[in-house]
Specification:
single chain; eight-stranded mixed sheet; 2 helices; binds coenzyme A; 193 residues; six-stranded parallel sheet; alpha/beta
Amino acid sequence: MNLSTRILLHIREIYRSLFSWVPAAPGTVLRWLAFRPLFKSSSSFRIGPGVFILGFKNISLGYGVALNRHSSLTADRGYINLGNQVYLGDFSIISGDDGEVRIGNNVLIGPNCLIQAANHRFDRLDVPIMDQGHISNRVLIEDNVWIGGNVVICPGAHIGSGCVIGAGAVVTGTIPPNAIAVGVPARVIKFRG
Ligand SMILES: CC(C)(COP(=O)(O)OP(=O)(O)OC[C@H]1O[C@@H](n2cnc3c(N)ncnc32)[C@H](O)[C@@H]1OP(=O)(O)O)[C@@H](O)C(=O)NCCC(=O)NCCS
């Protein structure tokens, strides 16, 4: 990373930190005013205190998105698209880096979840894993999904509309519409309705 990129990163971090600690309604209003022009696209949204965002220009937020306390969105080298009324729980992380995370409308994501677009490469034995780069991929979560607390959604996962993902699950593949899936790896135990 060259010097000018480093300086830019520090300036961005200072700008974000100026507003991120402010509590309650004044903080929500300040963050809306300060961050709205930075997103690729957005309308009304609510960002709680301590939220961390990198790569605003690659992030689109639909109407009524709520990013709760200490959650984070990172998309410096990728994309995040959140539909209308997406709720991201406290301390949850969405990383679109080296790929894309696309989430539909009316999606509820519990606390402490991790949604990650890309994996590290690890095929070479002569190079440290951290130096091997990433395998680009994407995560797709369709409309009207409820994801419980402490869920991990791995690169390549596709969760169909109307699904419920139980607390603590690790989703690695495709979950069909309206399924209730639990466990590690997540398996369908029944269907809604
Ligand atoms: C997935 C969930 C919605 C299932 O609710 P349900 O339909 O009432 O399911 P049941 O309680 O009847 O459980 C059915 C089976 O799945 C198991 N199960 C339920 N939730 C599970 C979970 N999260 N992980 C592993 N197994 C689970 C039950 O033990 C039961 O197993 P059994 O048939 O062998 O006895 C619920 O258990 C859950 O995980 N909710 C998320 C809560 C949460 O994280 N809230 C905060 C975020 S907003």
